[in-house]
Amino acid sequence: MEGKSGKVNRAFNRVLLFTLDGVGVGALPDADRFGDSGAQTVQAVARFCSPLELPNLARMGLGQIPGLEGLFPCSRPEGLSGRMVERSGGKDSTAGHWELAGLVQADPLPTFPDGFPEEIMTSFREETGTDPLGNINISGTAVIEQLGEEHCRTGRPIVYTSVDSVFQIAAHEAVIPLGELYNLCQKARHILDPYRVGRVIARPFVGESAATFRRTSRRKDFSLKPPKPTMLERLSDAGLPSLGVGKIYDLFAGKGVSGKFPTKNNSQGVAESLRLFGEITEGLVFCNLLDFDMMYGHRNDVAGFGRALRQFDRMLPDIKASMGPEDLLLLTADHGCDPTWPGTDHTREYVPLLGWYPGCTGGLSIGTRESFADVAATVLENFGLSPLAGKSFLSELVSLR
Question: Of 33, 63, 141, 302, which residue has the fewest beta carbons closer than 10 angstroms?
Answer without folding.
Answer: 33
